[in-house]
Design a protein that fits this description.
Layout lengths: L2 E2 L2 E14 L2 E12 L3 E5 L6 H8 L7 E6 L2 E3 L4 H6 L2 E4 L11 H5 L14 H14 L15 H13 L5 E5 L7 H16 L3 E5 L3 H7 L2 E6 L2 E7 L5 H9 L18 E10 L3 E9 L3 E5 L6 H8 L7 E6 L2 E3 L4 H6 L2 E4 L3 H5 L6 H5 L8 E2 L2 E2 L1 H14 L16 H13 L5 E5 L7 H16 L3 E5 L3 H7 L2 E6 L2 E7 L5 H9 L10
Parallel strand pairs: 4-9, 4-10, 7-8, 8-9, 14-21, 14-22, 17-20, 20-21
Antiparallel strand pairs: 1-2, 2-3, 2-5, 5-6, 10-11, 12-13, 12-15, 15-16, 18-19, 22-23
Length: 509
């Protein structure tokens, strides 16, 4: 067993290399992780983070190299073997069954059986409830996954992994959809697990989180190991520089100056089911408009109602000065409205489809020739988007399941741009995306606004809506509670309208 000054390596990857179709995505990665430490793993999208953790979990097999636990080489042939070895993964994209309940998902594959070989449902419900309570996550264990928000699904994934009593816990972007309070609760839990000797690999694109919670940080770039540093010896700027290979400049482009008050979309007193109670707002031509609020405030539900994905119980929507009745997403698309869902995997990309198939999914009519798809034109247009969005792809024909989260998101965004929208709603557009890819998407949103396309940005990241948007609507409990502009766009103002508590400041860390 290898030793360091701070203790043994409980987990070590030794000269790991991985290739897909002859393309090397990991190149000679040797990393040792100590018992009871929180190791940060960071890098741009496509750097190899997801591939590395999938090898540790047995989801992928290395082309060469090995994995050792406490100094002994092990073969991790699949995720079941990884779980038996005490390795558990909290995935970035959910691995849940929508038709099952919270407790059924938490115990799926690890069911508790009675002496008579029947499912002990009572005990599983009880343990699931206790686990969620300990995590500070007040979820009803009898709810179906389909009834949960994205943030609540993330909570179920975390709880499910911790039920395995894992000695090594891999957390892949676990804070992406969590509020500041929920993140602090999670970090408290992580510190408690660390004190109990649990080793945590923490994958995050948020440099502040890495500095706050990690003991050391591993940086990957282009499939290569760049550095392993003690967190006390490195600052956020240095981490960003190592990630992208150069000094990092300002993320947000200069805010677009409003040139007119031409209203392209107006919503008046929208009501939808029990979620939306009174939502009114207007969107100006070429504007980047923000929506802020805590998880569950109704931001996503507002977008889904505008898009025809939720029934409108009361209220009115006006597009270009005309009252419209949007019954489904096709109606919205025909009116020039596009919607980038926060649930990229569940409601966005098709993982087994390649780049052209994903991009042209909605606008396919334009690529038909004599009732057949003009594959040449489809490929040519898709290649144009690959260059425009800087999508890293070994092959245009590779299924999107093999792409990093950031490149999947760029393909998803290209799909909606291909519909030629006049209004584009982007719900958590940079969820799970690295700092450099964020800048690329921010620049592209800004360029859309310059072209006269109106953008609505829904984000849980305070810095994002403040840095990108010229106006911000704040929501609380299904209602719009404020519209901020100019000097009023501050953390204190946003959080006052989001919570009703004067002086509280949102803190992602």
């Amino acid at each position: 067993m290898k030793e360091t000054q701070s203790g043994p390596y409980v987990l070590e990857t030794q000269h790991i290399t991985k290739e897909f179709s002859g393309v090397r995505v990991l190149d000679d990665i040797t990393v040792g992780i100590r018992s009871g430490e929180i190791m940060g793993l960071i890098g741009e999208n496509g750097a190899g983070k997801s591939t590395l953790i999938k090898i540790i979990c047995g989801i992928y097999q290395p082309t060469s190299g090995s994995v050792s636990l406490e100094g002994t080489p092990v073969e991790i042939n699949d995720y079941i073997k990884a779980k038996r070895l005490g390795i558990a993964l909290v995935p970035q994209e959910f691995n849940l069954i929508n038709t099952l309940t919270v407790w059924e998902n938490m115990f799926l594959g690890n069911e508790i059986i009675t002496a008579t070989r029947l499912l002990n449902k009572k005990q599983m419900r009880s343990r699931a409830g206790k686990q969620l309570e300990e995590l500070g996550m007040p979820l009803d264990v009898n709810l179906k996954i389909s009834d949960l928000s994205v943030a609540e699904k993330q909570q179920v994934e975390i709880s499910k992994a911790l039920l395995l009593n894992a000695g090594i816990l891999i957390m892949d972007e676990p804070t992406t959809t969590l509020t500041g309070h929920e993140i602090r609760t999670l970090f408290t839990l992580m510190r408690r697990l660390k004190a109990q000797g649990v080793t945590i690999i923490f994958v995050s694109h948020k440099l502040g989180e890495i500095k706050t919670i990690c003991d050391r940080v591993t940086v990957l770039r282009d499939g290569k190991l760049i550095s392993i540093d003690e967190i006390a010896d490195i600052n956020e700027h240095d981490i960003a520089r190592k990630m992208i290979g150069r000094d990092f400049t300002q993320v947000f482009p200069k805010k677009k100056v409003r040139t007119g008050d031409d209203i392209i979309l107006s919503a008046e007193h929208l009501v939808s089911g029990r979620v939306l109670k009174d939502v009114s707002f207007d969107l100006r031509r070429g504007e980047i408009l923000g929506f802020a609020g805590l998880v569950g405030s109704g931001r996503t539900e507002t977008a889904e109602t505008i898009m025809g994905l939720r029934p409108l119980s009361a209220g009115r929507v006006t597009v270009n000065g005309k009252s419209v009745h949007i019954q489904n997403a096709r109606d919205a698309v025909d009116l020039g409205i596009g919607y980038l869902s926060e649930d990229r995997q569940g409601k966005g990309i098709v993982q087994d489809f390649d780049i052209p198939q994903n991009i042209t999914m909605i606008s396919l009519k334009r690529y038909l020739k004599n009732f057949l798809i003009d594959k040449g034109t489809e490929l040519e247009k898709s290649s144009e988007y690959v260059r425009k969005f800087n999508i890293v792809a070994a092959s245009m024909k590779m299924g999107l399941r093999f792409f990093s989260g950031g490149n999947q998101q760029k393909v998803y965004l290209a799909r909606w741009v291909d519909t030629n929208p006049s209004i584009l709603i982007l719900d958590e557009p940079t969820r799970g995306i690295d700092v450099n890819a964020k800048k690329e998407i921010y620049d592209f949103i800004h360029s859309l606004a310059e072209q006269g396309i109106s953008c609505i940005v829904i984000s849980s990241e305070m810095e994002e809506v403040m840095g990108l948007c010229s106006r911000i609507y704040v929501m609380k409990e299904g209602r719009v509670t404020g519209c901020l502009e100019g000097d009023r766009i501050t953390e204190e103002e946003i959080m006052f309208h989001a919570t009703g508590i004067q002086g509280e400041v949102f803190d992602e860390r």
